[in-house]
Amino acid sequence: MADDLKAKLESVCDEDSFVAFVAVLAADRADETKIEKEKPASPYGPGANGWENVSIEDFLESAAAWADDWKQSPQYRPPSNPWKRCAEILYAGKYYE
Question: Over the stretch 2-11, which tens digit does the pLDDT of each residue have?
């Protein structure tokens, strides 16, 4: 699942590919939820698929924090593809703390 998610993230170039990425991101979360019901991970680390932020509010807060923090980085360059930038922000919501 992680390889599919990364591949979809890398392929985002327009609205359709962004929506496809969001669908795979949602499937990744659903898969982790299923796995965690069967065999819970430690509450002190990420879940089976690497999710650190499992509530919608934590997910969105982390996505926004990553976007703000990355924009302050010396490596930041304005995105040439806003669809991919949006996908990157959502992807970061999965793991950024």
Answer: 788 999 999 9
